[in-house]
What we know:
The protein has 276 residues and is α+β, with helices and mostly antiparallel strands.
Amino acid sequence: MKKILPFLLILFMNAQAEVIDAVAIDVEGEAITTLEIQAVQEKMKMSRQSAVEALIRDRLEKSALKKANITVSDEEVQAKIQAIASARGMSQFQMRDILAKKGLSWDNYIKQLTIEIKKEHFFREHIMSTITPPSEDELRDYYEAHKEKFSSTPQQMSLVVYLAPTVEKLKEAIANPMRPVEGVQKRNVLASSSEMPPQLFGLISKTAINSFTPPVQTPKGVIAYYVKSKGNQSEVGFEVVRNAVANRWMQEQRVQAGQDFFNKLKSSAKIHAVSR
């Protein structure tokens, strides 16, 4: 009896482990386990239903990527890593160190990043193409319906653009603004907030006058903006803010197109709960 009892305990513990991490939902043959659902709930601070929806969407997106046969080169992944590191003002070695401290392996990070790049390709090729550009009347109607969001004139900003091949070169130029630094280009520009991408406008808005923005990695190199002045805002009409209206309209259409595509995938997918 003494020999049988430990064996029975092991069987019981294994059975309990299987129940704890049991398959809860099957999505097109891909499993979602109870532990995954719990992990997403805790990490994202969301309800169980929201966590389930997020995981179903993840499985459907991965299935769509696989069917589309989208490939990403090692060079593109490396460029993305460099862009992320540069935008945060750190080296890849520092990124590895931070990820390791958070318990994330570099290989898993690369795998996840590769999936995200594939999603970007898929979105451009299969979802963005479904969005029809708006007519002038549609933009005017949108402006009238959301006038409070465009009630001020664009800000005219005076900037100095620093373009460098590396973050190190950029930092050297910033530290010595009066001395030319090899490989670094500087250009004075007057820019309107209505013509800027929302991310750039947000970046400059958060930057104090006579200060530099954080570095931003671009296909042409690493860029930072020295903010000389920002100008004031006043009340205006549609013609002045047309570009801002078009940008906001497009952002909303992108979100809606993505949701519509997910709903279409979900409606035709084989999804069922797994009972044990």
